[in-house]
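Suppose a colleague, Dr. K., hands you the sequence of a protein chain of 469 amino acids and asks what its three-dimensional shape might be. Before reaching for any lab equipment, you can write down a predicted structure in token form. Begin with the sequence itself:
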Amino acid sequence: MGWPDDPETTAGLVPTPRSTEHENDMDGETELLLAAHGGDVQAAHLLGRHFAQHGDRSAARHWWERAAAAGNLDSAYNLGIWHEKHGTPAEAARWYELAANAGDVEAAVNLATLLLEQHGDIPAARRWFETAAEAGSRAAARRLALLCEDGGEVKAAVEWHRRAATDGDLASAHDLGFLAYASGEEDEALRWWESAAGNGHADAAYHLGLFLQANLDPEGAEAFFRLAARNEHPGAASQLGGIALSLGDLRTARAWFERAACTGRVGDQRTAGFVCVEMSDAQGAGHWFSRAAASGDPEAAFNFGLLLIAEHSDLQGGQHWFRQAAQAGHHRAAVELAALLSAAGFSREAERWLSDPPSPPWSRTTEPELVARAELAAAAVARRGGATLRIADLTEILGTWDLVTRPLRDRTDVTTWLAEQSGLPSGAVEHLAAVRAALLRPGGAPWPTPAEIEHVLVTARALRSALPP
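The predicted structure, expressed as tokens, is then:
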């Protein structure tokens, strides 16, 4: 590996050694040697830099050690980098600490990062991050905020994020939006997301678009989706594809969905396939259905099977993809597979698929504002390595409640009515209502866990079965 001055070898590894404003004052090796041997501390530092740039690492270390021992903080900082790069973190920490104790803010940040990432020493790392943050380091304030979030110290996390965001950290502004949203402070969430989005943060623009969509402002939502898409946000491209599709503009919808699909988003690959079908482009549909099917999407696998049979009379290929989809729980694929198997003389396997086909999935169109709430909730839960909630599951929960309560005029005691009409335990219906409320009105209760979602989905499906529309 090269010396840290090479940007290709330092990206994401360790910081770059520091020069000083006096570096150009002494640029000849002979003059530097004479001055350094004469006790000039600045010359010793620059000599170390000179040898580092020419690949003589041991000489660089020697002169930086002489300068650091005489009080040169830049040399101490560079020695920290030197040892961090060369696998001696204990020595790196010693030199960083020497510089940090003398007030070097960057050294304090590097020391804290080293203690956290190399040693897992959270208390010590936090002390040095606090030292640096109090001295004005935006990076340290953000790292402190994240440590506080991980430790469940939400109030402290908000304060440190606020410091970083006020100093221009867009990621912290975005995070403040989510912390406010999760606490039910929607005006505060709007303020921070607007601030970050206006300065080019694509995720903030996208989540602000979802927020506006959830609050029945489709025009405002579209404006921020377009802003996010200009910064190559694939989710925003997908949203814009959906908007174009709702307007019947297949060409524009296809362009947006394909833009999202090219980033590997399986759902958008499938949807791009459907748009191609609508445009009578069997080749394009096959391309996108096959990509999504190869990634394990059962709906795409089923439709790819249909396409192979309809366009190419490929019964073997169709049977293969029907089986893939059926094994993943696709109801129609199981029925079509059984028909193919029966026609081919495999009646026993056909009977097996017909006797116990997978249950049909939730396929009803859900209001855009409910889908947006589901996606915001899933994103909020997933922050900082949290649990993964499937947007489709959250959408099914919200959509089911909307569906089964439509006949009601008086909404004062919905859960009792649903329990009585369906025969389900009132506790199960109340749990569904509580999870729904947490998704729609954050801040009143913790976000649901994956186990809660699985439990509530059972209730939602039982409700749909007992109270068909």
